[in-house]
Amino acid sequence: MSALFQNYARRPFAIVEGKGTEVFDTTGKRYLDFTSGIAVCSLGHANPAIVEAIQQQSKKLWHISNLFESPGQEQLAAGLVKDLHLSYAFFCNSGAEANEAAIKLARKHTGKHKIIVFEQSFHGRTFGAMSATGQDKVRNGFGPLVSEFITLPFNDATALKAAADSETAAIMLEMIQGEGGVNAVSDEFAQAIHDIQQTTDILVIADEVQTGIGRTGTRFAFEQTVIKPNIVSMAKGLGGGFPIGGILGTEELFNTFNAGTHGTTFGGNPLAVSVAQTVIDHIFNDEFLQSVKQKSEYFINKLKEAFPDKNYTVQGKGLMLGLGLGGEDVAPYVAALDEAGLLTVAAGPKVIRLLPPLTVSEQEIDEAINILKGVLQADKITSP
Ligand SMILES: *Cc1c(COP(=O)(O)O)cnc(C)c1O
Q1: What is the number of helices (H) and of strands (E) in the chain?
Q2: CA distance 345 to 377
């Protein structure tokens, strides 16, 4: 008997230890973790620099209210916006909270309420973020949603141009839909968003909760497009496993979030910020980002080599990759991969998502490829 709500379809084993890309369950069985806690532990498990940061900060100060100045937040904010067109940061504790802040900021700044969002998007589980999410399975059963979210097909520039009007506060999107199936924004669609930005005052909110902090080979995924978002939300990879989220915004938004308009008790506390600082010190560096791109190329080539059949599709960017199985449901394969020692996560029903730590080695990628080959080419997959 479990005293937990059964709101997760948990896998039938518990991971109790990890180092780098490897994790171990209660029986001592070893797995390669190609989930990274869903794009969270980007520097690997028990990274010594992060362990050190937590230890040092935990002896000094864990928490102090946002009523006081925060040198740690100042430094982290400056590091996150450096060399970008963005100017200011606000810190919270999760992706959903970051998106709430983004939605509130966009509405208050524009004085408008309509926000265009997309089918198969995922923005989180709070009311605003849930209302922005383009998936019925996330929204059903919870009663009236926050109003004025308009859901359009993703990557449909014609539909977007028709819907973006003078009532529109913002367009909110993921640069690569994560939960929705590892679907990247197309060049044409990015261009359409760019054009709307040039000709209207509609804001663009990039939900980089999953794609941000080096996951796709650049600091943020929007840097690989022509889109210059007014607001960027982030979380998952930012704390390397310690909960922290936040938004970045452009100069023009500064006066909208003035004193008393928005806040959080825990957001950006010194412990969280010390970890996030360590994370970006490692990741926001050309050499590191270059290594992510190299590993990505290596991984993509190996996947294409291992699965040459055109039924297989390799999607995504950087180390946020998806392997589609020609429309077949992936759930039994994900379970079989667990069994074989490779942890992966489904992206929608049809795609296996591969999110190794950004510190993964080529040898570990080779090992993962061998496990994938063994499992996906086995004739018989036993359902869990
Ligand atoms: C995970 C995710 C969220 C929600 O983040 P939480 O920390 O679970 O609230 C929002 N947007 C995207 C794109 C995500 O991948």
Answers
A1: 12, 17
A2: 18
Ligand 1 atom nearest to CA at 177:
13
Alpha-helical segments (H) within 284-378: 286-306, 331-340, 362-376
Question: What is the fold, at CATH topology level, of the domain defined by 49-283?
Answer: Aspartate Aminotransferase; domain 2 (3.40.640)
Query: Could you say which of 3.40.50.410, 3.30.300.30, 3.90.1150.10, 2.30.30.180 is the CATH number of the domain covering 20-47+288-376?
Result: 3.90.1150.10
Span from the CA of 210 to the centroid of ligand 1 (angstroms): 7
Q: pLDDT means per 10 residues in the chain (384 residues)?
A: 95 98 98 98 98 98 97 98 98 98 98 98 98 96 97 98 98 97 98 98 98 98 98 98 98 97 98 98 98 98 95 97 94 97 97 98 98 84 50
233 Cβ below 6 A of ligand 1:
no
Write phi, then psi, for 131 (nearest 5 degrees).
Answer: -65, -30
Note the pTM of the prediction, 2 decimals: 0.97
Ligand 1 atom nearest the C-alpha of 179 is 15
| 101 ligand 1 Cβ < 6 A | no
